[in-house]
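Risk register update: the risk that structure generation would not scale has been downgraded. Supporting records follow, first protein first.
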Amino acid sequence: MAIDAPEKCVIVVDGELPVGLALNTAAILSLTVGRHVDGVLGDDVKDADGFVHRGITSIPVPILKGDTETLASLVVRAAAVPSVFVVDFTRTAQTSRTYDEYTSRMSESGTAELPYVGVAVAGPRKAVDKLVGSFALYR
């Protein structure tokens, strides 16, 4: 599902992950949002020398933290809101060596059984805030 021009995008990462895995989770979720959500990336810009700098996100993307239970709940709750885009990242994905292994392993578990390590949500500000308003910033 693609949505147009979100007002807000947040990434929620399992606060218990080691820093390297947390950064990797945020990067993977960001790439997926950038691919699927129109209007997240701004246009390319030129500096005073005429050098072109590729467009970066045109909206802030705070990184929040949660635990595995709140991440699983967020996935289900966000999926039920038609105006938001949600993408999740699981420990299953994080520990798979290939995409084929990942897809095979994912087919063996139901949504509620998956070990979520990160979730990105993009959409209208009010809808996103309602979903993640109680989450703390990842520090």
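Supporting record for the second protein:
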Amino acid sequence: MNFENYQKEAKTWLHELCDYLGIEDEQKAARIFRVVLHAIRDRIPAGEAIHLAAQLPIIWKGIYFDGFTLHAEPIRIRHEKEWLEFIRSKDTFAGNADFPTLDHVHYAFQDVMKFLRSRMSEGQYNQLAHSLHSNISVPA
């Protein structure tokens, strides 16, 4: 096991994510990524959540699964505003700083999804997008 390579890959993802988010603060970018990943993880079926994890570098997998509880059914969210509030609720420590408004949550979610699309196979990304409700706007 080469922990330096795991760290390097995770940092590469983080630097690229900063570009997508348009911010330089790596800590904030990491919090936003964690929050959006956790919201997605809890919203999609368990099988899809595991498929998404398989696309992540090992360090991000650990962050992704941190606090995960397997449920028979995913959280039911059908409206955009409810989805954005759910994402914001995942950022318990810095929610107001990271997401002062729901518009901030919306743009962060869109940017994270664009980033994931650039890192995932097209089929896997389409499965992920399809797992979210059709009333939740996901970049194509």
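The domain at 3-131 is CATH 1.10.490.110 (Globin-like). On this basis the risk owner (M.S.) recommends closing the item.
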